[in-house]
Each structure stands twice: as structure tokens, then as C-alpha cells.
Amino acid sequence: MPTRLLEISGLGEETQVRLYMPSLEQKESYTALSYCWGSDQEVKTTKQNVLSRTEGITWNILPKTIQDAVRVTQQLGLLFLWVDSLCIVQDDPSDMSREISQMPSIYGAATVTITASRSSKVHDGFLQKRYPKIPDQVFCVPYRCPDGKLGSVVLLKSSKGIPRNVIEPLDQRGWALQERILSRRVLDYGLFQTRWTCQESTGLWKEERPEKYTDGWRPRPDHIPMR
């Protein structure tokens, strides 16, 4: 278990977050966040505020990416989230050294890692509408989402305008590769699609390679040969 986690309680506008220190014997299910800082963090845990963080962290001061990670964690039915800027004491060299050395176990033991690939800084968030400048839209049809809200399905021309290999902001950060490889499961929020990758070899997951699923967008159509 990580030394510290963010404990989430309440729902909607009543959501509350506090720093939580599990005992050595505890085994809690949690998500981990992989994201771009963008710059030094205004909201972080320090030696001065680490104890007050255990009483609560004001929701409105949390950057948008961390707020979105809390929302995703809630929707997954989990109560704990690991975020480096809040779960590591950032001005304590010994704490940083100890916690950074635990990265393999922190990401490896997480139930799922949430990767904010589309965001270049912590204030961007990742649950907002998709990349708005998609060219060559053929048509858009309404679609009723599982939660009852009205969404849409868009057909695009893939022959021009859309890059074949999308480079996400998080793809340009070296440590993000480590976090992705270490994680058993990844829920990746990108510019064009949400991707689910699982390294498990049981149940639905094939043994020969990780399974990858997306919410629909492909850089090129899938061709099914006629028999």
C-alpha cells in the first residue's frame, strides 16, 4: 500500500477529499493518476500542511485534472486515489526519496491507473468535450447514452486531416512511460478517444498480449475481409 492516499467521500457538490494514511496491514483498492504537471504545483503537500490535509482539502483549490480524477474514481466505485503532488511531501527529501522508490509497487498495485494523456498541465482537466477541430465531418447523429443524457455519434473522413499517430501531451513525458508499463490496467483519456488497456491474463484478457479497447475513434477504418 502507498504511504498516503486521497480518501474520497460524498457525491456531486458534496464531494470531500482528505489525505489518508492506511496502516501497514490494510489492503485498499485505489486508482493512481498519471498526468502532466505543466509547472510547479500551487496545490501540493508540504511539511507545513501535511497534518491539516488529513482533516480535509478544500475542493475548489484542487486543479481540474485532479478533480476529474476524483470524479472518475467515484464512478468506478472506489474510495481512494493516489496523486503524487498530494500524497508525497514535496519539500521533504527523505519522504520524496522513499516514495519515488516505491513507484513500481504504487502503480503496480493500483486497481487502475487514470492517465490524463490529453492534458498538458494540471489545470486543463480531461473530462471536457473532445478535441474540437476535427476536420471533414460527414454527419452527426444523436445517441442516447447509458446515463440517459443525449450524446452523438460522428462519422469522419480519415483520409486527410486526422493524424495517423496522435502524439498526446503525456506521451512526451519520459516518466509517463514507466507509469504506463508498471500499471496492470490503464484508463487513458486522449485527445480523440478514451482507451482501456489491461495487462491481466485471466478472464476476458488474452494471455499473449494486453487487450486494448476504445470508445470508437480509429485513425483508419477496420477492414473485414469477405469470405
UniProtKB/TrEMBL annotation:
Q: Residue ranges of the Heterokaryon incompatibility domain?
A: 30-179
InterPro entries registered for this protein in UniProt: HET (IPR010730)
Q: Which domain of life is it from?
A: Eukaryota
Q: Note one Pfam family from the annotation.
A: HET
Q: What is this protein called?
A: Heterokaryon incompatibility domain-containing protein
Instruction: Give the species this sequence originates from.
Output: Lachnellula occidentalis
